[in-house]
Predict the structure.
Amino acid sequence: MLIEQILLHILIRLQNERSMTAAYYLLQGKRSGQTMQDVGLFKLFPIFNLLKRLPKKTYDLYVEQLISKGYVVKTEKSFYMTSAGEKAIKPLPYFDGWHLRGNEHVFFGRMALIVQTLSNQAEGVKGFIPVQKDVAVQQWCRQFLRHYQFKERALQEPLYKEILTSVSKLDVPEFQKEIGIGRLHGAKVVGMTWSQLGSKYGMSEIDCQLYFVSFLHSWIKEIVSVPDAYPFLTDFVHGVYMHQTVTGSALQTAQMYERGYTLEQIAMMRNLKQTTIEDHIVEIAMYEPNFNVEGFISSEEVRAVENAVAKHQTKKLKVLKEALPNLSYFQLKIALAKGEV
């Protein structure tokens, strides 16, 4: 099962360092300071935010299955991977959760409604129930169609060619392409449900959804890589692919800090806790290599943290704090982020 493989890839990196719940937050794309830092510390960028709507009970069920297979063992505060679990790990299909953050579904929503509209137009059908209910997606589609004067029927052929060309270039198995295209609706074609796709390919519905997400991530990557080749499809990915991966709130904190405000002043002005502002600084330090952290920690202290991590073979703040009592937890977080240890 693909969901099982994804969990194994996460858990082997978080073992003995975090709780099982930390893995769930990462899959769900939680925007807390701890989860955002874990993405960078444990190099889990591709898998971030893959299953935003995954219920906690469903996640717990999959974890229990891994435990029953002897792949994972729970401890009082954490867990560890067994040798059987390590041997069970296989390569994953392509994912880019960090840059897409679930926005691949916005991309496909636009695609689904445009394809449905143009297909019905070609068949002379003037009224139909839109497959996409999201108001923002509907508004985007109206603007797109008006901009390209779809009533003149000059949009179908070039857009179809871009879709066909871009999908043909994807380095993904054919069944993933079939799952992706199979979800589209036309004038005389109804997109397949997850249940139907699961039955067709002999896999669970959640695995179908994950292979679908992988297909979308690969498709968007192709479009973003050569935008000039896909002038229409490039519009579809506008606002979907995040080139700026730092959260807007953290960026605002960084801008205020660079203007000379202290962390205390920023917290007061933004009506936020100082620990939240500190987490913003850690986030910026991790994902913006040119951000200067010397006002918070010296390069010698960063090296001391790196040495402590190597010595104790852990990134747990509690252990590092005991080894380096002169440093605050905030400084330890910055060192971990900046050193990428």
